[in-house]
Design a protein that fits this description.
The protein is 28% helix and 28% strand. It is of the alpha+beta class and 79 residues long. It is elongated.
Length: 79
């Protein structure tokens, strides 16, 4: 996958004030900038991270790897 800077990027929403459903969770949007499509941001995975869970780091890493796999699949669909 040719992406700008050769990496998957992450946008974080750290806290949502007053939202009990999201208490203790952080939202992550993983995306990339495909080198073949200038000016495009390709959203890949939107995933919550539960900071109260002991294995949050492995789930975060898994979401980033899922995003990379989706980016590669998207690029291969272009032909």
């Amino acid at each position: 996958m040719q992406v700008t800077g050769g990496k998957i990027l992450e946008m974080r929403l750290e806290e949502i004030e007053g939202d009990e459903l999201m208490k203790g969770k952080r939202l992550r949007l993983y995306f990339c900038e495909p080198a073949r499509c200038l000016g495009v941001l390709l959203g890949l995975v939107f995933a919550p991270k539960d900071v109260n869970s002991g294995d949050w780091k492995s789930r975060q890493n898994s979401a980033a790897l899922d995003a990379l796999a989706l980016a590669e699949e998207w690029e291969s669909s272009l032909g």
